Amino acid sequence: MIDTPTRRIVLGAGAFAAGSLLGIGRGVAQKPLAPTPACHDGDKPTLAQTEGPFFKPSSPERIELIEAGMAGQPIELFGFVLSRDCKPIAGALLDFWQADDKGQYDNSGFRLRGHQFTDLEGRFRLRSIVPGAYVGRTRHFHVKVQPRGGRVLTTQLYFPGEARNRSDGLFRKEL
After folding, report:
1. How far apart, in whole angstroms, are the C-alpha atoms of residue 19 and residue 51?
2. What is the pLDDT of residues 133-150, one digit of tens each?
3. 79 close to 116: Cβ distance less than 8 angstroms
4. For position 106, what pLDDT does the model report?
5. Which of 46, 54, 63, 167 has the least C-beta neighbours within 10 A?
């Protein structure tokens, strides 16, 4: 969660594994995930987490990270950026990056990297692929969130029920 002198931002998200919902396999969600619980005034802010060694600034603006010929199971993330009092944050910057389906990051270009801005109702949508796990880490998405003129929150989004969640020291159920 972003903690500024005047407000905190709540990142709520749902995920939908696109394509054949029964064919995803390997511990990844096989149907739409339950939405994040409803926002209530005074909820705890989204937890901050490390950006890790793989963040690159100046990603392209886009909501589609899938490229022609890219391997992997398509997935769509969608949700809201909300204030602590459950008000939508319009124009908040979201910067996403992730590993490919084999757990590798593109450190020379911007494959599976991109940023976007929330709409007037604080909504965002991202189409990508399910990230692969790699040594020491479960599947996850990285995201930086920043309201206009506010501080940056760096956090990660995880898959509930993933077997490797138990062995990932960074995993947090709340995310």
Report:
1. 29
2. 999 999 999 999 999 999
3. no
4. 96
5. 167
Instruction: Write the pLDDT tens digit of every residue in 65-113.
Output: 999 999 999 999 999 999 888 899 999 999 999 999 999 999 999 999 9
Q: Are 145 and 153 in contact (CB under 8 A)?
A: yes
Is residue 160 within 8 A of residue 146, CB to CB? The reply is: no
**CA dist 70 → 43, 65, 111, 116, 169 (Å):** 38, 10, 10, 21, 29
Indicate the burial class of 129 (C-beta count within 10 angstroms; 0-12, 13-18, 19 or more). Answer: buried
Give the pTM.
Answer: 0.80
CB under 8 Å to 143, separation ≥6 — which residues? 11, 94, 95, 96, 154, 155, 156, 157
Token pair listed for 34: 């339950």
Q: What is the phi/psi pair of residue 163, to 5°? A: -60, -35
CA distances from 67 to 20, 109, 111, 115, 125 (A): 19, 13, 8, 15, 16
Q: Residue 23 to residues 58, 68, 162, 174: CA-CA distances in angstroms? A: 35, 21, 16, 26
CA distance 139 to 141: 7
